[in-house]
Amino acid sequence: MAIEAGQETQGGGRIRLGMVGGGEGAFIGGVHRMAARLDGQFELVAGALSSDPERAKASAAALGLAPDRSYGSFAEMAKREARLKDGIEAVAIVTPNHMHYPAAREFLKRGIHVICDKPLTSTMADAKKLAGLAQTSGALFVLTHNYTGYPMIRQAREMIAAGELGTIRLVQAEYPQDWLTERLEASGQKQADWRTDPQRSGAGGCVGDIGTHAYNLACFVSGLELEELSAELTTFVEGRRLDDNVQVMMRFRGGARGMLWASQVAPGNENGLRLRIYGEKGGLEWEQEQPNHLWFTPFGEPKRLITRGGAGAGAAAGRVTRVPAGHPEGYLEGFATIYQEAAHAIRAARAGKPSGPEVLYPGISEGLAGMAFIDACVRSSRANGRWIAL
Amino acid sequence: MAIEAGQETQGGGRIRLGMVGGGEGAFIGGVHRMAARLDGQFELVAGALSSDPERAKASAAALGLAPDRSYGSFAEMAKREARLKDGIEAVAIVTPNHMHYPAAREFLKRGIHVICDKPLTSTMADAKKLAGLAQTSGALFVLTHNYTGYPMIRQAREMIAAGELGTIRLVQAEYPQDWLTERLEASGQKQADWRTDPQRSGAGGCVGDIGTHAYNLACFVSGLELEELSAELTTFVEGRRLDDNVQVMMRFRGGARGMLWASQVAPGNENGLRLRIYGEKGGLEWEQEQPNHLWFTPFGEPKRLITRGGAGAGAAAGRVTRVPAGHPEGYLEGFATIYQEAAHAIRAARAGKPSGPEVLYPGISEGLAGMAFIDACVRSSRANGRWIAL
Amino acid sequence: MAIEAGQETQGGGRIRLGMVGGGEGAFIGGVHRMAARLDGQFELVAGALSSDPERAKASAAALGLAPDRSYGSFAEMAKREARLKDGIEAVAIVTPNHMHYPAAREFLKRGIHVICDKPLTSTMADAKKLAGLAQTSGALFVLTHNYTGYPMIRQAREMIAAGELGTIRLVQAEYPQDWLTERLEASGQKQADWRTDPQRSGAGGCVGDIGTHAYNLACFVSGLELEELSAELTTFVEGRRLDDNVQVMMRFRGGARGMLWASQVAPGNENGLRLRIYGEKGGLEWEQEQPNHLWFTPFGEPKRLITRGGAGAGAAAGRVTRVPAGHPEGYLEGFATIYQEAAHAIRAARAGKPSGPEVLYPGISEGLAGMAFIDACVRSSRANGRWIAL
Amino acid sequence: MAIEAGQETQGGGRIRLGMVGGGEGAFIGGVHRMAARLDGQFELVAGALSSDPERAKASAAALGLAPDRSYGSFAEMAKREARLKDGIEAVAIVTPNHMHYPAAREFLKRGIHVICDKPLTSTMADAKKLAGLAQTSGALFVLTHNYTGYPMIRQAREMIAAGELGTIRLVQAEYPQDWLTERLEASGQKQADWRTDPQRSGAGGCVGDIGTHAYNLACFVSGLELEELSAELTTFVEGRRLDDNVQVMMRFRGGARGMLWASQVAPGNENGLRLRIYGEKGGLEWEQEQPNHLWFTPFGEPKRLITRGGAGAGAAAGRVTRVPAGHPEGYLEGFATIYQEAAHAIRAARAGKPSGPEVLYPGISEGLAGMAFIDACVRSSRANGRWIAL
Predict the structure, then answer these.
(1) ipTM here
(2) Which run of H or E residues covers position A271?
(3) Where is the signal peptide (chains A, B, C, D) (predicted)?
(4) Is residue D352 a part of any domain in this protein?
């Protein structure tokens, strides 16, 4: 069963989607909806869009949901939609982290597919329970580590898997931002508020919010597994309750080494996610803010710029490419690719078949890996940088 | 009536859309559909997707159109949809240029809004007839000069209008590509085939296909009007019937000068649309392949990089911005902004109101200007570069 | 006789150099001296550094010249040095343009080699007389079109000569600056003063000062000859007596086309000399402000970045490279290469031999070509852009 | 006593310079000579250019040294030159690291100024002895941490000292190269040979060769002092005897944090020295391969590009700037600035005066700091990354 980004609605019509969270004022909910719409594979038909009933209702109306499918709670939505003849087949969970587990549980146990924002949960205990549920449920679990959907990330992964870099030696990952340079949470700004709150975010601040993205991407592209890490988490802004800067040294199985830097207090950086991987034969360099470009540096030859859709881009990138080279695709397209692959898998599931090997969306195991990374960073940092095995 | 990109379906539900052209194998049809879906404002419900009946039917089925709303011709579609209670309110015309006029005519005269690909038509005569129709029809006419939808283009336009560059002196526009470096049309490649065919494309090849984009953008951003031009059109590839390289010198009303270069035979260039505008007090520089960045160069001060969503971006860019700074928006988002603004205007029209001044989609006058530009370039070039007044 | 940049003093000791112009407050004189010193091939021993006797004396003292070799005029210097046993072997002429001819004459006719700043002269008549003199004199004439000394420019030239781009179709040259955005000459600033004065600069302002550099470089690299041009010279700043913006359309022998833009009123541009050349098989792109990089764009393959000293750089670049890849060489090194090649030729001349074919400094014919370019631009612009044959 | 790059020979004539090492086939010797010549402040008059007598003699002849001032050993040179009336005033030591101390000792104890390549020595014991000598000798000791001579590095240092970034939080330094990706030393390549040999290089390979440069620059610019570090040194290439990759986590006095990565096995990197420093109010970013640019990122404002010689560049950069903005200065110019400042200090010493506070060349204390850094990295790495205080 082939897959192709930009492929539009197929037999059986659009997939009926619900959403938990994402009411007015939220950021990531709108992103999920745009991503779900772009390729025409999903139709949003139900929502528990806010824990505030008024806001939930208003948000549902603005989105054109039928009033009787705007719910006051995810539990209510799960229960009723599961009984409807045309109830939702999948749900997007876009709440703060601490709600991922309780929400996902209600849908998974009723066989409704879950598309969940990262990190997996706010605690390791929740993560393990969720993993257990996901394994026994017949439903799919998709984790939106969205950067894996960028075509040139697929290209990089394919090149490394094909041995074009030789044995990997070095993985340098970074994700600097600047939006928490000052104590924004003190202003009540919604995003800053929950992301710096241990109750809702978990034990990791910057490390959970963006460090996991960089870590996930490093593993996704390199194909390596982290063996142990030494971390230094810092909170620079006075009064902040979670880390806002993350430094990690990494030892991968097989001998590769790496460093990871994530920060939310580096002025001038917006979403500076960057990955550089070097092997015995060559290297690859990629930056999220110029995602259509991939530098390939074969040792002893001039550097080559591989572009999305251009000469040198292979099948893996091609499958998730929507427009020709030189017309930039961005964040929403990459995000939509996760939805596109989820749709593909859901249609395969409808037919009782597995999806093909080219479907690469992150799932529960990537979620657990991310939680283990956060946990190890927190423990290493508390132990003055002691190496922690994963 | 405020407008905001990313704003999702509003009162009255999605706008019912038809499409002419855009069947399997086409390029721009899929782009229009993604753009129409992104913000959830449109629902594709009918199509005359191909002049080949088999392909039309197959394409419609793949897109999930009801069989009775897949038509064999645009004329049939216009006639029947106009009579349906829930017939289409708008149509996207995504055919080769020579079909723009006959197709648009059928819909405009029935009061169905038209969203049409550029250039306006294949001949000046058609352009004038279409303009006449558009002025008398109650329906809206939207021309997808999509690059005007990029947020940083809106930013640049706003800054110039506010006088931040002082009186404009120079407009340097360019749009190099490389896809026609060899005689691709000889291979039967669909895009190359019609774009190099005077019958379907019109008298301009490269100048009509991308020269008009650069010209449109230069005028949109600078606010200037072209007074006269001197052009050199060249066909480098043997056997090609239209120009594949365009050089233009430009004199604008008020004394500004400019140059425009468009090429389809410049190896290494994908969609290198670039605009540089300089005034007495400062300059602006922008490149389509890095559309989230705008350089502002106030004379005597360090250059500043204004980013989409970042500090320094104003209201005009903000209205058409979907995701925060550092998460790149690209071609589809810019294209979708034209659809978003069309939707806004259509909803205003439903309510019998004009859309607000912040709605900036190109229309019939920009279409006529583009046709005049093509015509003047062709005439000047034939007259050995004689200056031609516009 | 091999040549290599960075090669230091050879048999016979340093070449004794004099200088005309370049006293305190001048710009280009100091550049020539640094260039002459870098490789240790020259020793400045005499000067007529200023027409102002006090300034001449003070400048000579600051440079450590013997008092009796600081002259009040170039004529006096030429006469006396020619008679000295250890008199100068070469002279650098770094005055405003109108003095190039009278100064060069005095030295050439006495068999003293001349290294002269560009453009050749301030009038075509002077240029022709100088060319006549240079042809009959036994002395060498070197014109410091210094950009030809950049290693990646040599690389580009070599690649084109070797056919790596196929037949050349397009030459896009530009050289924007911003330093004359306002009427700087009104402030008495020395550089602005003479460069905007027709008496000292000649009939071309911007076209003579930097347009000729861009033109020289385009021909040097492409190997093409200009057949005819159509130009538009503009003076944007009120009260200025010469052009400050230059637009040129170019037709080369053999069918290639090109455009050239030079400006001194483009805010944010420092020395934005840029060359892009495209052929049937590929292209090359280079920018003076990042001179160690050369983009090579073979059609249908990923772009490659060739770096000075890196893989992919060939013999022509290697000969003029001083330090390894990644340690940037700049303007002075490129300039010094002209001096290095002049030294090489002078040493060959001492031995009564011609210098080898790898010595590529510009000379009298490049000087005449530059003067013809200025003249044609001025005439074409006055004739409303009429095509002028060269 | 003011200083200015590009300032040429002053009263008292050129400074007489000797050189130890730097014979044919060496790399850094030629660099020192070009740097010494550029501003006309030095004259190379003596040398012990090689431990191989034949090569020493041939090299001296090629450089035009008088035969009786080409020595077979540095000891002989020091002894004899000290007795000559016009003997050398300063000596450049450009040997492998293990010879720095024995050579410097001979000159310092005779009051001859020393300009020495980095790192200071090959062992900590030698470093301490050298420091003792330098403190008691009346002669100056200059260490060529040449990157401190780049104008935009001076600019960055000045801005931080002036508080434009507020309290510094983060220092991210890196210096990737690729030239030792394969086992180049096995080929006998001279540079690779001694740099990977513990006897000649010292206990640090990559960390000593380039890690110290990055560390030196980080401290020079930030004004911070390192408190403790945790390091991981790796040798990727089989058979190599010293580290070829360096990862360091850094804690600075006052609470700033940092990371440092240096590598000689990162394909595609030439001399990728890069420094990013962030404070409470803004950040600065600089890359050695584009040294004329400095990004300034005040929090909450658009990024600004400060260029060498351009608007926004201050007095500290101006003092070491030779040519106007847009004409790139590179590695040799930065290196020459160390020589220029050494000359300034030597002339001041001639006059019995101290040099002014604007003379910033690195000296013995920077040398000791570098040795302590190498030592701490080696010890931390051997102790599995234990934090080591400096």
Answers:
(1) 0.96
(2) none
(3) none
(4) no
Q: How far is CA C17 from CA A350, B336, C51, C224, D45, in A?
A: 87, 66, 19, 34, 20
CA dist., res. D290 & res. D294, Å (int): 9
> In this predicted model, what pLDDT tens digit does every residue of A239-248 receive, in sequence order?
999 999 999 9
In angstroms, the separation between the Cα of residue B310 and the nearest Cα of chain D is 7
Verify that A232 and A375 share a domain, yes or no: yes
Number of domains in chain A: 2
Q: Does B325 touch chain D (CB under 8 A)?
A: no
Give the model confidence (pLDDT) of D24-45 as tens digits: 877 899 999 999 999 999 999 9
* A109 and A255 part of one domain: no
D50 & D115 share domain: yes
Q: Where are the beta strands (DSSP E) in C220-281?
A: 226-234, 245-252, 257-263, 274-279
Does B297 contact chain C (CB < 8 Å)? Answer: yes
Q: Which domain holds residue B24?
A: 5-145
Best residue in B183, B207, B247, B380 for a mutation probing chain C (most C CBs within 10 Å): B247
pLDDT digits (tens, 9 = 90+) for C117-164: 999 999 999 999 999 999 999 999 999 999 999 999 999 999 999 999
Across the interface, whether the CB atoms of B249 and C276 are under 8 A apart is answered: no
So what's the pLDDT on residue B1? 34
In this structure, the answer to whether residues C197 and C233 fall within a common structural domain is: yes
Which chains contact D through at least 3 pairs of Cβ atoms less than 8 Å apart?
Answer: A, B, C
Question: Which amino acid type is present at position B217?
Answer: L
Number of CB pairs, chain A paired with chain B, less than 8 A apart: 130
Integer Cα distance of A37 and B39 in angstroms: 8
> Would you say residue B124 has pLDDT above 70?
yes
Q: What is the CATH number of the domain that holds B56?
A: 3.40.50.720
If residue C292 lies in a helix (H) or strand (E), which one and from where to where?
Answer: none
pLDDT at residue D11 greater than cutoff 70: no
Q: How confident is the model over B29-41, as a mean pLDDT?
A: 96
How much of chain B exceeds pLDDT 90, in percent?
92
Q: Is residue C86 a part of any domain in this protein? A: yes
In a domain, A353, yes or no: no
Q: Which residue is associated with the tokens 């879906």?
A: B37
CA C196 centroid distance within chain: 19
Residue (of C116, C51, C106) closest to C81 by Cα position: C106
Residue in the structure block whose two tokens are 């040493």: C347
Query: Chain C contact for D8, CB < 8 A?
Result: yes
Mean pLDDT, all residues of chain D = 95
Cβ of B280 and C181 within 8 Å?
yes
- What is the sign, positive or negative, of the torsion defined by CA atoms of B172, B173, B178, B180? negative
Residues C95-126: pLDDT tens digits? 999 999 999 999 999 999 999 999 999 999 99
Q: Tell me how far apart the alpha carbons of residues B390 and D193 are, in angstroms, rounded to a whole number.
A: 70
CATH of the domain at D382: 3.30.360.10
Indicate if A219 and A113 belong to the same structural domain.
no
Q: In chain D, which residues have their Cβ closer than 8 Å to the Cβ of A265?
A: 169-170, 278
CA–CA dist B205, B241 (Å, integer): 8
Q: Are residues B105 and B162 in the same domain?
A: no
Which helix (H) or strand (E) segment holds residue C290: the answer is: none
Same domain as A248, residue A223: yes
Rounded CA-CA distance A68/A61 in Å is: 11
Distance separating alpha carbons of residues D78 and D71, to the nearest angstrom: 9
> The pTM is what?
0.97
Do residue C170 and residue B281 have CB atoms under 8 angstroms apart?
no
Given the structure tokens 């006058």, which residue do they identify? B365
Question: Domain end: B145, B167, B196, which one?
Answer: B145
Radius of gyration of chain C (CA): 20
Q: What single letter denotes the amino acid at residue B71?
A: Y
Q: Chain D residues with CB inside 8 Å of C269's CB?
A: 326
Contact between residue B342 and residue B113 where contact means Cβ atoms under 8 Å apart: yes
The answer to whether residue B62 is domain-embedded is yes
Among residues A145, A171, A193, the one where a domain terminates is: A145
